[in-house]
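Example 3.2
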Amino acid sequence: MNNHLKTDTLTIKEINKMAIPLIFNSVIGMLIGLIDTAMIGRISLDAFGAVGLISTTINSITGVLGAIAIAFNIAGAKNKGEGNTKGLIDNFLSGILTSIIIGLSIWFILLGFGNRLLQMIFGLEDVILQESISYMNLFGITICLNMILFMFSSLFKIINTTKYLFIGNITATITNVILNYILIFGKLGFEPMGVRGAGIASVISLVLNIVIYISIIYIKKLLIVNDILSIDKMIKNGIILLKNSLALLGQEILESTILVICINAILSRIGVLELSIYTLLSSIVSIVLMPMYSYASTALTLVSKNYSQKQYGRMLLIPKYSLKLAMIFCISLSAILIIFKVNVVTLITNDYKLISYSLQYFIIALCSCLFSIPNNIYKYSLQGIGDDKWVLLNAAVINVIGIGFIWFLSIALEMGIYGVYIGITFNYIILSFSNNYRFNHRIVLYSEKSI
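Structure, written as tokens:
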């Protein structure tokens, strides 16, 4: 009994040691991001809808490409466990180069065909189309910058120095708020730039974040690079990372990007008000879910590490306690936001119509997001044991059905935003149950084979 209690306590401590700095990093960054959204919300409804549409879509694409960083996380954790520092450095630099090539390529595509894509996919026109193009042309480069930051984030998790993520992120996000205020509203002699100012501020802040991380690694000597691979070898390593991330990329495309794009497409056809409501509430929901992503990424790293050591009993505990800890944080944040919901919404926008309608959907939006927590914890845990192909197939089947269900409720039955949230909730419930069952079943099988 005492041994089990000791194991549980040590597991929780290990999880929190890695996850809590990530939580502070994410929550503070998101809170400051909420202030950014509030600034845009005071320009116009079209500007608010445009920035929300572009940022959620591009961030979804970035999230998908973050699968490359996840593949590095898994490979790097194995390098770290084996004491192969050179392999860790080689994989990291190869991942950085791959991120730059892919990120810039997508940005150039957006610059060339963004106008047509916005009209075809989202049906945008007039003012909101022009605002969206203006923001997208600048914000598109953040795909490349965020992919690089994902690689640094994975590196700091692997070498267990997540506190430096907090230092870099808090500095960059405060800078972002200051620049947004100056550039959006035209302070200190600058012309008011509106959504263009928001895009410029985001790019400068992300570049600053990268510079801070590079400086920390150099000053603290966290990695000492003696022999850098040639460009050819880095490209070859990058191709290997890409191959290892294909199933992960597929998962994110199905579960994040396609779902987000389809929901935005549905809402944009219902109306600009509905799109703005969903954008506003998504900003608030993002705050609630920050602890989830921190604990999910922690579960991935620790499950991968214990899997290589065949610590199957401990592997069962990691997602179990990660889920409990994530739920405690997320439910607590939800309760606080519900109590102060009027203050939170009015902080983001001063549009009376948008405020009144958003408050109607506030609670269902928060309740819906909570069902995504077990799905993500166990999805990341399955990735840690190399079961990413099954996760891809499972996500493909469930999300295709889920998209159809969301369309049926929101459009065919004319339930609007309520239909969207109900459909999303059912989607997450099914994904959560299936991922949970699969993980526990696989670990039991591995344990029996090792006896």
